[in-house]
């Protein structure tokens, strides 16, 4: 046996070196592109971002440019969409992976899920406008936009959760069941915590699509940027928060698009800076939550 080609001292082939170099170059380019885009957006727009810009609304009479209303609308869309899509997506993945018997029905469901993820967002917007807006009578509202985005991000969460569940060794399942655990208890206490990183990845991808979506929301959520008006009555304020979901509301991406159309590039880049920061903060919070839920 050739001693130079053992596990302890394996011979290096030229092709391995070339492929390893290609991997490092690709990874470096990805990081450089990300830093370049973020840096360019911040250089162009950071001068526009200030406290007044974040806490006021655009007004022609007061000659102010603010995104407070759009910021609130974006948070509404994120919260409502994830509250609906996350349990649906994770629940669907658990059923497909742990309960459903492999066969034609499961294959059809998985094919449908993959097809949904490839449909252009403008088609989702048209469907949401016709079905949620007109057929269900919700009109242009945050609820219509959230329901539409739920359909869009559901495949991301479902497929990522499925792949995460498949990475959990079968010995975990058989061991837990052999010790007398019920199937649901095994899923809740072993499978979900063990696959939490994959589930979080799906949620992060969904967050990115929710925050960055504009085409579908133009047809469903509208472009209004007014802030809710609160008073001294707590019950009335709570009612106002829920009533806001039935009203039109433009997100940050919608406002960015409208500002670009008007030629207000500084304001548009300022909104871009805020969007990048929001995505980074949400990703960090999601990672921290997953770390807390992950078993030691």
UniProtKB/TrEMBL annotation:
NCBIfam families noted in UniProt: 3a0107s02c
A GO term, aspect molecular function: phosphate transmembrane transporter activity
Cell compartments where the protein resides: Cell membrane
Predominant location category: membrane
GO cellular component: plasma membrane
Gene name, Swiss-Prot/TrEMBL: pstA
Keywords: Cell membrane, Membrane, Transmembrane, Transmembrane helix, Transport
Transmembrane segments: 21-43, 75-96, 108-132, 138-157, 190-211, 267-285
ABC transmembrane type-1 domain: residues covered: 71-286
Membrane topology: Multi-pass membrane protein
Family to which this protein belongs: Belongs to the binding-protein-dependent transport system permease family. CysTW subfamily.
BP GO terms, sorted: phosphate ion transmembrane transport
Protein name (database record): Phosphate transport system permease protein PstA
Organism of derivation: Candidatus Acetatifactor stercoripullorum
Pfam families per the UniProt record, alphabetical: BPD_transp_1 (PF00528)
InterPro entries given in the database record: MetI-like (IPR000515), MetI-like_sf (IPR035906), Phosphate_PstA (IPR005672)
């Amino acid at each position: 046996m050739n001693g130079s080609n053992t596990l302890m001292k394996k011979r290096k082939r030229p092709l391995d070196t070339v492929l390893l170099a290609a991997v490092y170059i690709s990874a470096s380019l990805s990081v450089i592109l990300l830093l370049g885009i973020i840096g360019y957006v911040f250089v162009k727009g950071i001068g526009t971002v200030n406290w007044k810009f974040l806490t006021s609304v655009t007004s022609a009479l007061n000659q102010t440019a603010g995104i407070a209303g759009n910021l609130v609308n974006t948070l509404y869309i994120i919260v409502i969409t994830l509250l609906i899509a996350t349990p649906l997506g994770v629940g669907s993945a658990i059923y497909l992976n742990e309960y459903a018997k492999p066969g034609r029905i499961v294959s059809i469901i998985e094919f449908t899920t993959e097809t949904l993820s490839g449909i252009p967002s403008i088609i989702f917007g048209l469907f949401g406008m016709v079905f949620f807006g007109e057929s269900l009578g919700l009109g242009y509202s945050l609820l219509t936009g959230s329901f539409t985005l739920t359909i869009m991000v559901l495949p991301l969460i479902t497929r990522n959760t499925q792949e995460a569940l498949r990475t959990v060794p079968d010995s975990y399942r058989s061991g837990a069941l052999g010790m007398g655990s019920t199937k649901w208890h095994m899923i809740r206490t072993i499978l979900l915590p063990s696959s939490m990183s994959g589930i979080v990845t799906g949620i992060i991808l969904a967050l990115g699509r929710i925050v960055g979506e504009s085409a579908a929301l133009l047809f469903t959520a509208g472009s209004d940027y007014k802030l809710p008006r609160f008073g001294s009555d707590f019950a009335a304020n709570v009612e106002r928060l829920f009533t806001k979901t039935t009203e039109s509301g433009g997100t940050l991406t919608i406002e960015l698009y409208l500002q670009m159309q008007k030629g207000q590039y500084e304001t548009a880049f300022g909104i871009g800076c805020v969007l990048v920061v929001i995505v980074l903060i949400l990703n960090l919070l999601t990672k921290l939550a997953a770390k807390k839920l992950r078993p030691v």
